[in-house]
Amino acid sequence: MSFFHSIRASGLAALIFLVGCGGRSIGGFPLAGAVAPTSKASAHKPSGSYGDLLYVSTKKNIVVLTYPQLKTVATLPVYYAWTYLCSDPHNGNIFALDGGSGTITVYAHGGTTPIATLAVPSGYQVLGDCAVDPTTGNLAVPTDGPYQEEGAVVIFTGGQGIGTPYSGKKLRDYEDVAYDDSGNLFLSANIIGRRALLEMPAGKQDFTPFKFVGRFQYFDKMQWDGSHLVYDIAGPPTASLEQVQVKGRYVKIIGATTLDHSGGSGLFWIYDGSVITPFSGILKGFRRAVATWRYPQGGEPTSKRYGITRGEANNIWDLTISSASSK
Questions:
Q1: Are 70 and 55 contacting, i.e. CB atoms less than 8 angstroms apart?
Q2: Cα Rg of the chain (Å, integer)
């Protein structure tokens, strides 16, 4: 594991193949609707004129940068030790998940004042990741359940309103989610202590596991790159993104992208022919950087920006791209 702290990393060495697990859905729980909370956001207010924006969460704040220029234009507050990020690919809305309290703050593209807050059902406050369905705008959030032994994926229809938790039979430790271009939801979770990759097909309410062909490792995050499911094999000094072909109920690795000097942070974002992830080098004063690499070519970084954080304890936690509405 690198210096980028991640509570999601585990000692599992392999992703074991699993079959024959049925799923079940759980009915919705009422929760508070969207409200407009107060914010201590930076007085400087970026707008859509900046084009695409890169959001990077740290222990102290969320840094907003122009992309691909990587120039800081604003900072947003964080309220807990870790904040997960994801974005709506159509309108650029940013979802900032307070990993400890269960609060989800929503920002419009370039906005510094929240446009809404969402809350997960009672008992599911420990959040782990998020993803937005490009076909519906639904927000999927994996959570730990009561006593951290159960859990669910809470789905907010259209990224707003009341969230509904869904769980699969015998599933535990819900961690990572990703949608493909057709609205199929992929989930990383445990089944009786063994790691599994599962799918909730578009329009369905049950999770079913894949059969793995060949070697698979435990992964820390995943994303759909337009053609394949991609996950990160985290671990210093170099990260590797592995492309997975999904065919029926079978998945297999068909390629890999090595990101030199990436540090193996276990987080990344693929966008417009590039991948963004933290850079392994640290400057004096513990100033950390994010960098970009060509995707899927990898190799040496094409650009980097130091000064995203300052201080030994202020680590980079997550990142996402907010696409300009004009794209």
A1: no
A2: 18
User: How many other CB atoms are found less than 10 A from the CB of residue 13?
Assistant: 9
- 3 state DSSP class of 120: coil
- pLDDT, tens digit, 9 for 90 and up, residues 19-63: 233 332 322 222 233 333 333 333 344 444 579 999 999 999 999
Non-local (6+) Cβ contacts of 139 within 8 A are 86, 95, 104, 118, 130, 131, 132, 133, 155, 156, 159, 163
By percentage, how much of the chain surpasses pLDDT 90? Answer: 58
What is the rounded distance in angstroms from the CA atom of residue 58 to the CA atom of residue 4?
Answer: 10
φ and ψ at residue 253, rounded to 5 degrees: -75, 130
Provide the b/e sequence for 148-186 (b: ≥16 CB within 10 Å).
eebbbbbbbeebbebbbbbbbebbbbbbbbbbbeeebbb
Cβ(146)–Cβ(123) under 8 Å?
Answer: yes
Provide CB contacts within 8 A for 46, sequence distance 6+: 53, 64, 73, 74, 110, 111, 112
- The one-letter amino acid code at 59 reads K
Q: What is the pLDDT of residues 255-302, one digit of tens each?
A: 999 999 997 778 999 999 999 999 988 898 899 999 999 999 999 999
Which residues make beta-bridge pairs with 241?
232, 257
> In this predicted structure, what is the pLDDT of residue 145?
66
Residue 147 CB neighbour total at 10 angstroms: 7
Report the amino acid identity of residue 152: A
At residue 49, φ and ψ (nearest 5 deg) are -65, -15
Strands (E), 131-259: 131-132, 139-144, 152-156, 163-168, 171-179, 185-191, 194-200, 208-209, 211-213, 222-224, 229-233, 239-247, 250-259
